[in-house]
Amino acid sequence: MHNSSLINPQCPIARSLERVGEWWSMLILREAFLGASRFDQFQKNLGIAPNMLTRRLQTLVADGLLEKRPYSTRPLRHEYVLTAAGQDFRPVLWTIMAWGNQHFAPEGPAIQLVDSATGAPAEPMLVDRHTGRPLTYPAFRVVAGPAADARTKSRYPTWPATTPTPNPTESADAPTGAAA
Amino acid sequence: MHNSSLINPQCPIARSLERVGEWWSMLILREAFLGASRFDQFQKNLGIAPNMLTRRLQTLVADGLLEKRPYSTRPLRHEYVLTAAGQDFRPVLWTIMAWGNQHFAPEGPAIQLVDSATGAPAEPMLVDRHTGRPLTYPAFRVVAGPAADARTKSRYPTWPATTPTPNPTESADAPTGAAA
User: Fold this and answer.
1) Domains of chain A, earliest start first
2) In sequence order, what are the residues at sequence separation of 6 or more whose Cβ sits closer than 8 angstroms to the Cβ of residue B88?
3) ipTM reported for the complex, 2 dp
4) Domain HTH hxlR-type spans what residues (chains A, B) (predicted)?
5) What is the pTM of this model?
6) Which residue, A126, A172, B142, B159, is most buried by CB atoms nearer than 10 A?
7) For residue A166, what is the nearest residue in chain B, using CA coordinates?
């Protein structure tokens, strides 16, 4: 089920997605981040069948991740450009890339994230935007949120699981020094 | 192509994956992070067809993300447990979750990441592990790495793109104060 011949076998994103499911839509987004915007660019770079590409592009447009807009009127031609929501997918791709480099690139990274000014390799790590603390488990965990329905509440823990013990050294307010 | 009826429609991860491709393998990993380890747990929680689940579990085991090990000998029964590489997929799921909450949860988050000690919601952000700097574009970018082959080099920029201008205030060595 892995059409490895159709994609760049060096790409750690592709390697990750070979392991976690289908990948065309994510790879189309990756191509958009690399500068592709026209049908034939996506088609050439990915080696994807035209009917499959058409369907995936339509879905990405319908889902608000790509915007279809004309770049030529005679003849009418369209390009596909990342929306704001599509742009926000970049951290997902970078995180997948880092995971792929970590586990599926024994020969070293074929692509990597670097500081644009210095070329120094960067290593993605998740932190909490509010406090800067590294997001590790079990210090942080996923719980049911305010919009959880009964099914979600039955599957995810809620916080607090028990009545919290009052702790005078911690208040519900964030420390004034915390970055917002 | 979206089998929305088979998955929790509130889950922002599922909502993201509805938009970026197939999702069974990632959802199996999500279930493993939630504590599932036995075939019937995955099957019940995901509503996935048994033959599809068997195939996906075999692939995840073959790819080194899950380990299959016996938990009972009479009768022989196996469970599926996250390997170290599988555990390292957690930041990917958390990043996908954050993206889903940001864009596909207009009613608010059904699940969210919180500080286990305080319950304060956390917002994932990517930073460079070495410097702590937020990983944003275009301050950081993806370039061909040391293991890049000709095809990868033809598709990704290299750094530096041009001969660098010597800058006495910056050296190739990291500042001694930088965290390793």
Assistant:
1) 4-103 (1.10.10.10), 125-163 (no CATH)
2) A99, A102, A103
3) 0.79
4) 11-108
5) 0.79
6) A126
7) B118
